[in-house]
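idk why but the lab printer keeps eating my pages so im just putting this in chat instead. protein + magnesium ion:
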Amino acid sequence: MPIFIDGHDSKVLTQEDMEKLVNLPPDEFGVTHLELFFSKTDSRLYCILDAPDEESIWKHHEAAGFKCDFINEVHQIKTEKTVKTEKMVTLGQMSSNISHDLRNPMAIIKNSIDLLNTKYKDQLSPGILEHLARMDRSIFSMTMMVNDILNFARTQPLHLEDNSLTKVINHAISTIRVPPNIKITLPQNDITLKFDSAKLESVFYNLIINAIQSMGQDGNITIKFIEKMDDKIQIQIQNSGPAIPDDLLTKIFEPLFTTKQYGTGLGLPSCKNIVEQHYGTIHASNNPTTFTINLPKHIEKLLSVDRT
Ligand SMILES: Nc1ncnc2c1ncn2[C@@H]1O[C@H](COP(=O)(O)OP(=O)(O)O)[C@@H](O)[C@H]1O
Ligand SMILES: [Mg+2]
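predcted complex ->
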C-alpha cells in the first residue's frame, strides 16, 4: 500500500494521544499509523501512514474528529532538485522548439540582407548600408544563440568516423569571423582519430568563439594536440585573454551560467555533453586561459565494453 505523510496542529493533539495510535491494526478505512514526529519549530505533528489512498485518510480523520492540514503521498513528494530538473526539461523542450522555428525566418532575413548588399549595393546610401551591416551582425548573434540552444537540447547518437583533428578545427575556424588582430596558431602535428566530426566541430567552434569574445579585438589563440602515454589524445585551446576567476572554473560548465549580456550559458555545457559522449573530459585552467579536452585514442574499445 502507498505511504503518506500528513500534518496536524500539535496544539490540538497531544503526543500521548497520538502515540497510542501507532502500529494499531488497520482501521475501518484501511489506515495504519507507522510513525509520528513532533516538530517544535512549526508546532506541528507529522504522521507517516500506510493507507489504500488519500481519500481513506481524510475519512479516517473525519471519523476520529481530527483536523488535518495536508496529506501527501511520499513518493510524489518533490524535492527542490526534482522540481528544478522538471522545469529545466520543460524549458529545454520549449526553447528548442522555438529555436528550431526561428531558423527559417532568420535564414530569410539573412538572404535578403545578402541580396541587398550584393545586388543593390550601388543604389543604397552609406547610411542604409550601415543599417544593413548592423542587421547582419544581429542575425549573426541570433544564429549563435539559436545554435547554442539546439546543440544543448539534442543529444543524438554519435556518428563515428576516422577524422583529422586539424581538418575539423580548420572547418570550425572557417565559419567564424575572426577579428584581424586575433592570431590563431594551429598545431604543427595532425592526429587522426575516430570521432563525430560535426559534434566535435561545434565544440571547437564554441571554444574559439568564447576565446575571441574574452579577448575582444586582439590577442592570440594557440591550439595544441598532444598524444599522451595513457591512450589519450589531449587538445588544448589557449587564449591570451583575462583569467577565469578560480571559483568559476567549474561553474562555467553548468547550464545557463553566463557572464555575458547576450550569452545563453549553454555553449560550454553542450561542449561538455559532447566530449563526455566521446568518453572524454574537459576542464578549464588559467595562466594562460586554457580549455583542455582529453579524448580516448580508441573509442571503439570503450563502446564495445559498454555494449557487453
Ligand atoms: N575563453 C574564456 N575566457 C574567459 N572566460 C570564459 C571563456 N570561455 C568561457 N568563459 C566563461 O564561461 C561562461 C560560459 O560560457 P558559455 O557556456 O559558452 O556561455 P556564453 O558564451 O553564452 O556565456 C562565459 O559567460 C564566460 O564567463
Ligand atoms: Mg559561449
